[in-house]
Structures are given as C-alpha cells and as structure tokens.
Amino acid sequence: QVQLVESGGGLVQAGGSLRLSCAASGRTFSGYAMGWFRQAPGKERDFVAGIMWNGGTASYADSVKGRFTISRDSAKNTMYLQMNSLKPEDAAVYYCAARSPRTLRYEYWGQGTQVTVSS
C-alpha cells in the first residue's frame, strides 16, 4: 500500500521558518515526479514546488521562489520542503504528491499538514 505521510507543519510567526517532511512508502518512486501543493480555505489547491525523485532541477511557484527549497533523500524515502521567510499568505494545508511517469498524473497524495503563519 502506497503511503505519503506529511509532517512538520505548525504555527510560526511571519518571517519564520518551517521544514515539512513527506515520508514515502509502499513502492519505488524511481521515475516519479514529486510535488508539494497547498490549499488555503476557500481556494484551489496550488502547486508549490516539484522535483524528480531521481534528482534533477527543482521547480517552484513564483510566489515561493527564493524562500522555499524542495529536496529529497532517496535513502530515507523522504522529501522535504524548507520554508523560510514565511508570510501570512503562505498559510494553508500542505500536501505532498507523487506523479506517475506513465500517466503524468499525481496519483498518490498525503493527508496534508497545516501551516499557520501569524502576522
């Protein structure tokens, strides 16, 4: 059974930092693209950052470029999102997801972790 489990969310003051983790299990993710998404109340789920499980160039939403860094540790089967200089508008539920190289769809999703940023 494939599982993606996020952790590391919480309450932080504006300007602070958090590191989210996404522990992956249940299959090999070689060839998969991994992504972080977020959804604020009343808004759609938006792409935040992505990286290939096998490594390579990361991609970011314009709103987080220069502040967030995505990475993965294949030995630990874990993906991370380092979030610095957090702003109130970064508050959302953050999800990790895995995109199949065959279907090009994000087929696997975590349950989400809440990030709250106080001003």
Structure notes:
The protein has 119 residues and is mainly β. It is 0% helix and 53% strand. It has no helices and eleven strands. It has strands at 3-7, 10-13, 18-25, 33-39, 46-52, 59-60, 68-73, 78-83, 92-99, 106-109, 113-118. Strands 2, 4, 5, 6, 9, 10 and 11 form a seven-stranded mixed sheet that branches. Strand 4 (33-39) and strand 5 form a beta hairpin. The chain starts with a strand and ends with a strand. The model has no long low-confidence stretch (mean pLDDT 96).
In short:
By secondary structure, the chain is mostly beta strands.
Question: What order do the helices and strands come in, and which of them pair?
Answer:
Layout: E1 3-7, E2 10-13, E3 18-25, E4 33-39, E5 46-52, E6 59-60, E7 68-73, E8 78-83, E9 92-99, E10 106-109, E11 113-118
Parallel strand pairs: 2-11
Antiparallel strand pairs: 1-3, 3-8, 4-5, 4-9, 5-6, 7-8, 9-10, 9-11
